[in-house]
Write a structure and sequence with these properties.
This protein is an alpha+beta fold. It contains 7 helices and 19 strands.
């Protein structure tokens, strides 16, 4: 660990102070893993090189992302949310594994809520909801049978004219497949490009260690989900099912992506047409998450994501010197 910190930036602004290491918790949601730190005043390091070194799986601790639990009042984005959502005391300040800032993370929100509860700084009574500030707005977390459920807010097309006219809006070149595939771009507060494949064999042989080539690319870049719908698509229980792999922007292939599962279900449901179910189970390499579509209080169709959240270990980065 000392070697890792020796490789990290040495300025006082970009690393923990020499007098005290940075306390962290390792957690995951269906294999999508994070390093979380309780940072009420927003003083923990966030620079790109520090986060990338921390999340490096060989020289650091290793994670898909880095999450600071910051009081909303300490960040400009958080203060803006508090104007209309005063109960969003905590803000999920999320960085991808390469150090880049991301709007939010669906699996990360569940793990973040579980982390706050474990640290005793928030409460979530049965039947209640915990408001979490993110760069994609306030997300409300409730308890569910398999962990936590999150109202992810409304979904929408990134390129609506093409999506409605043709059912696709882009082409994606994917390693391991001979020809580019049509795709549909969905926003869940962060961008996704969903590709439907015909066979599990195709899904298995795709190479997601490098980013697929997307044309056109959404303005903020994109995550790419590859999906194989079940056959039959809807089971006797009325629930739709699909299998998914994902390449996450700023990370690479991950075991799971919560917002990606929501986008994949939204795209598949749109392709399926009238009569497609509101409830879906999405199988990812790290497990299964639930996705449910419902009418939101704003009159738009919202998406609920449900799944487990696990805290693995607590630790402290050793100071240098």
């Amino acid at each position: 660990m000392t070697d890792f910190l020796a490789d990290a930036p040495s300025s006082a602004a970009s690393r923990p102070s020499d007098s005290a290491g940075l306390s962290f918790t390792k957690g995951h949601g269906t294999g999508n893993d994070f390093l979380l730190t309780l940072d009420p005043e927003g003083t923990a390091p966030t620079d790109v090189s520090f986060v990338a070194a921390l999340c490096d799986r060989n020289r650091g601790i290793g994670a898909d992302g880095y999450i600071r639990a910051v009081r909303s009042a300490t960040l400009p984005e958080g203060r803006a949310l508090l104007q209309t959502e005063p109960d969003a005391e905590w803000f999920m300040d999320y960085r991808n594994g390469d150090g880049s800032v991301s709007e939010m993370c669906g699996n990360g929100v569940r793990v973040f809520a579980h982390f706050l509860l474990a640290k005793g700084v928030a409460a979530l009574p049965d039947g209640g909801a915990l408001a979490i500030g993110t760069r994609a707005g306030v997300k409300r977390v409730t308890r569910s049978g398999n962990g936590y459920a999150v109202d992810m807010g409304p979904w929408e097309f990134i390129f609506p004219d093409a999506a409605v006219a043709r059912g696709m809006d882009s082409l994606v070149g994917i390693g391991g497949l001979d020809v580019d595939r049509p795709a549909l771009s969905i926003s869940m507060g962060n961008p996704h490009t969903v590709v439907a494949l015909a066979e599990h064999a195709e899904l298995d042989r795709t190479e997601l260690y490098r980013a697929p080539a997307v044309r056109p690319v959404p303005p903020a870049g994109t995550n790419v989900e590859l999906v194989v719908p079940s056959d039959p698509l809807v089971g006797d229980d009325g629930v739709g099912r699909l299998r998914m792999r994902v390449h996450e922007r700023g990370v690479g292939e991950t075991q799971s992506c919560g917002t990606g599962a929501c986008a994949a279900a939204a795209a598949t449901r749109y392709w399926a047409g009238e009569g497609a179910p509101a409830q879906w189970l999405v199988s990812v390499p790290g497990g299964v998450v639930g996705v449910t579509f419902f009418d939101g209080p704003d009159g738009r169709e919202h998406v609920q994501l449900s799944g487990p959240a696990v805290l693995v270990a607590d630790g402290v980065l050793l100071p240098t010197g």
